[in-house]
Amino acid sequence: MASVQRLVLDVLKPHQPNTLEFARAIAALGEDYRVDIRVAEVDEQTETLLVVIEGDKLDFERITGAISKNGGSLHSIDEVSVVGK
Amino acid sequence: MELKQIKTLLEISHSEAIVRRYFVVNGFDGALTMLGLIMGFYVSDRVDLTVVITSCLAAALALGMSGVSSAYISEAAERRRDLAQLEKAMVTSLDESHHARAATWIPWLVALVNGIAPLLIALIIIVPLWLARSGMVLALEPLLAAMAVALVIIFLLGVFLGRVGGIFWLWSGLQSLAVALVTVGLIYLIG
Lengths: 85, 191
What we know:
The structure holds two protein chains of two kinds. Chain A is an alpha+beta fold. Chain A has one domain (3-83): Alpha-Beta Plaits (2-Layer Sandwich), CATH 3.30.70.1340. Chain A has helices at 19-27, 60-69; strands at residues 3-14, 34-42, 46-54, 73-83. The longest helix of chain A has 10 residues, at 60-69. The mean pLDDT of chain A is 95. By secondary structure, chain B is mostly helical. Chain B has one domain (14-190). Chain B is built from six helices and no strands. The longest helix of chain B has 42 residues, at 49-90. Chain B is elongated. The model of chain B has no long low-confidence stretch (mean pLDDT 92). Classes of the chains: A alpha+beta, B mainly alpha. Chain A binds chain B through residues 12-14, 16-17, 21, 43-46, 68-71, 73, and chain B through 8, 11-14, 85-86, 89-92, 94, 96-99.
């Protein structure tokens, strides 16, 4: 079964939780999850993030769940790396 | 709800400072009201201790109820408004988020703190009166002992505020104490 190993997501989120907490919430989903976030734009109440997530077997549903739980909204999936096994 | 979840909701909604402020403000209210009430009884001649305790308890309960209801009504309205504004900025519903949960639960938490602070402080101030009524001999006259407890609590609230604000603790404690002593003085003058 193919496994997702890298995702680049365009996410809009409120200022709280801050970017560090947001990254931690996603990284906590898996022991080998690596999360890099670049803040692309900051508005009065929101910020746009470019979220890069890497791992051996990323669980997309849980990732989007964590994003929603922390107030974020997934705008687009900009890049994916999937490995067939 | 777990303590960690409460902490998350407090952080997301920037409510830690609000909860602290409500605790001190309404706690101060409770202490000063009790001090004023007991001082009023002290300057009146020969008021039965049971009457004093009942009156103080009634006032404490009223302060508690007032604290819970007023804080809940105002906080719930503010939180709903903030959530609606955030949802408008996000152009999406935040129903599943910590933000929506904070909008539901934080008003209750703030209301409880706002109500419990004056109630708890008032009950502590009344303790010497209860002890005296149950036959315990106190070093001071019961009303004076209760007033002393009130003054200590007011001083401690001032110290707490000083530590929060980074002001020298003794100075902020004395400031609070001065307000209490002025109140006592005014009641003495009208009594």
